Amino acid sequence: MDLWKILVLGVLRLNCNWDYDKLKEIADNHKTVRLMLGHSEMDNGFRYALQTLKDNVSLFTAEILEKISEIVVKHGHQVIGKQPDQKLNASCDSFVLETDVHYPTDINLLFDAMRKTIVLIMTLCDQLGLLGWRKGIDHVRKVKRLFRKAQQLKRSTSKNDAKKAKREQLIIAAHLAYLNLALALVERAKGSLLSISSSDIVVTLKIAEIKRYISHAERQMDQISRRVVEGETIAHNEKVFSIFEEHTEWISKGKAGVSQELGLKVCIVKDQFGFILHHRVMQNETDDQIAVPIIQETKDRFMDLSRCSFDKGFHSKSNQSNLREILDNVVLPRKGKLSAINREIENSEEFREARRKHSAVESSINALENHGLDRCHDHGIKGFKRYVGLAVLARNLQILGHFIQQKELKRVQRLERKRKLQLAM
Question: Which of 59, 87, 276, 354 fits a disulfide with 306 by CB distance 3.0 to 4.6 angstroms?
């Protein structure tokens, strides 16, 4: 596949919020899309393979997509008639893009790790003709049975201390049985790996993958033992929220009805025309930590950026001063009680007008979420960043297409009015 086809299919996937099956169906049968991809009407027999679509769309990197998006935005500014001396007024805000993971508990994360360890080592031993894991599927069933038993036992709400203590002992016993089986299978897996000696790169990579899942299992066993048996509270920074999407973070934004979200925060900078000038995937970062870097990066790409509005989450004393060195006008509300000078600044008509327009960035965030950026279906941190990059590029192309469409509509309306005027004469 050439780069143009990959770009078109990748953008369509995000803009229309399709999965790969739907994308293949459209690419194989939609007449207009096929013309856009470069297939003539005589080329009806060509069909895309599902795996080909997945492999090629994943070739894009976040850096390439950012450069393409920058080109699209600059061309969009020309299309809408932005003057060279016209300044850009931006709005900056963040939202959570969820990863495709289940709700994490230490016991179900241990089950995930054990399941992958057993299946992978069973498959590897079968390929190499080694014995010892013929009953691997049966081992998975045993682990799942003990996992379900530990999962279903709940602490007693009785006021009788004896009943509560008895239930606590049952819970501890169920978790210990689960841990003992997991530990025995992990030790057995380690022994099997020691017996494998091969210079084949594929075998080496599979062994490394198995060891990674074993390390996940050992961490979860340690945390379960400390939490259930020893009664210890596990620190937040020790927890992992997915063994498959390890970049997943537990994010509490205080929204009504949403106690937490599992994913990563994404910050966007939007201009007054609706284009997204820049975005940033935030790993272990807060809004106030990225306010200056993202604006500096945006300013490097768009030198005519003059003003940007934020919400209170981006405020810090250093951000107030550092942003003023980059921008002509900073609209960043302060937290807490305001001094007389700051109250006067925030009550000024210019500041209040910028704050009223700041809500427009929420519209862009909502549009991104409606067009695929509510949950990331790609794997790994690279896939996550690529997914965001494609969504931002798709949004900018959508805005550009809207301006071109409106421009053409106005041209047609002018011709129609001119025609009617001539007929009237």
Answer: 87
Count CB atoms within 10 A of the CB of residue 246: 13
pLDDT, one tens digit per residue, over 290-310 is 999 999 999 999 999 998 999
The answer to whether residue 424 scores a pLDDT higher than 90 is: no
Pair type for strands 375-376 and 249-251: unpaired
Question: Is 320:332 a contact under the CB 8 Å cutoff?
Answer: yes
Domain boundary (201, 217, 238) is at 238
The total domain count for the chain is 3
Rounded Cα distance between 91 and 365, Å, is 11
Kindly give the pairing relationship between strand 261-270 and strand 249-251. Answer: antiparallel
Query: By C-alpha distance, which of 330, 288, 323 is closest to 309?
Result: 330
What is the sign, positive or negative, of the torsion defined by CA atoms of 39, 46, 394, 281? negative
| One-letter amino acid of 160 | N
**Cα–Cα distance, 189 to 194 (Å, whole number):** 9
Among residues 304, 302, 334, 305, which one has the least CA distance to residue 318?
334
Nearest Cα residue to 335 out of 309, 313, 367: 313
Whether 265 and 374 share a structural domain: yes
- Integer Cα distance of 353 and 341 in angstroms: 18
The answer to whether the pTM exceeds 0.90 is: no
Distance, in Å, from the CA atom of 122 to the CA atom of 302, rounded to the nearest integer, reads 55
